[in-house]
Amino acid sequence: MGNALKAIWENPEGFSVSDKGDNSFQFFFNKEVDVLRIERGSPWLFKDYELHVKRWKKNQNCNEEIISNCSVWVQFWGLPESFKTLEVGRKLEEKLGTVLEVGKFQMRDRETRIVKNKINIDVARKVRDQLIVAGPNKKEVEVALRYERLENFCTYCAKLGHEVKNCQDLLKDTKSDMVKEDDIGKFVKASQVGTQIYSEGERTFNNSTQNQNKATQRKKKSVLNCLLEEFAGMSMQEGKQSLKPQDTGNRAAPELPQSANSRT
């Protein structure tokens, strides 16, 4: 495993692996830049399994920290052009999980660009395939959701962490002769990842909790105030969301917090 990951991760200096049992592993690196790069690239595909990488915390409980949630990139398809902004993307994603990053990406087909978010999602929750939002003139718009690197996924119960053949819900329904149609289809798997693009004065904002440099924190305080003012102009309704497009830029310097752990 170590040699394979070393090749996938482009030979990070001082890389080593410690098996913690129950499909949990602790990775070691010499350089902080490698930790940031590999953590940010999570989830990784390794031998047809998803490898979720998180920074290792002292005295953390692996089962609670990793099994219950994981990070995944979600694409929004079908947003009106004026709604393809970072703040709108962030507002939408709050319905799905904890927002980690927001960005705009150039895609190959259909639309020239989309909004894409990285979220921390609860694996016990069902994966959604769409959101209904109130677009221009309050007209309802269906926004399709596509998930990147979604391998270990069940279409029957629409949950992460297992495939249909291992679905306990399907087993129970089969025994009681109450098998239903699949909750969701494999179409929710993204077919492309795109290339990140930036407008003038616009950068992705990273909501990670690892902000350790005090000087950087002082600089970010004014940025946070600006973002809060911008978000104040957006409204949300339960069941559907009413969003107002913004014409302002967003600035934030992503700062992630030397070992990392993973769960397959």
Record the SSE blueprint.
Elements: H1 2-8, E1 16-21, E2 24-28, H2 32-40, E3 44-46, E4 49-55, H3 62-67, E5 69-77, H4 86-93, E6 98-106, E7 113-122, E8 130-134, E9 140-147, H5 168-175, E10 195-197, E11 205-206, H6 214-231, E12 241-242, E13 259-263
Parallel strand pairs: 8-12
Antiparallel strand pairs: 1-2, 2-13, 3-4, 4-13, 5-7, 5-9, 6-7, 6-10, 6-11, 8-9
Descriptors for this entry?
eight-stranded mixed sheet; globular; single chain; 2 domains; alpha+beta; 6 helices; 264 residues
Written overview of the protein:
By secondary structure, the protein is of the alpha+beta class. It folds into two domains: 2-68 and 259-263, no CATH class; 69-197, no CATH class. The chain has six helices and 13 strands. The strands form two sheets. Strands 5, 6, 7, 8, 9, 10, 11 and 12 form an eight-stranded mixed β-sheet that branches. The longest helix has 18 residues, at 214-231. The radius of gyration is 20 Å and the shape is globular. The two termini are 12 Å apart. Pfam families: DUF4283, zf-CCHC_4. Residues 238-249 have a biased composition (Polar residues). Residues 2-64 form the DUF4283 domain. It comes from Arachis hypogaea (Peanut). Residues 237-264 are annotated as: Disordered.
Output the structural class: alpha+beta
- In what range is the share of β-strand residues? 25-35%
Instruction: Estimate nothing, just give the exact number of structural domains.
Output: 2
Low-pLDDT ranges: 204-224, 226-242, 246-257
- How many DSSP H or I helices? 6
- Cα distance spanning the termini: 12 Å
What is the total tally of β strands?
A: 13
Percent helix, as a range, is: 10-25%
Give the CA-based shape: globular
Radius of gyration: 20 Å
Order of helices and strands: HEEHEEHEHEEEEHEEHEE
Report the sheet with the most strands, covering strand number, pairing sense and barrel closure.
8 strands, mixed
What is the residue-mean pLDDT, rounded to a whole number? Answer: 74
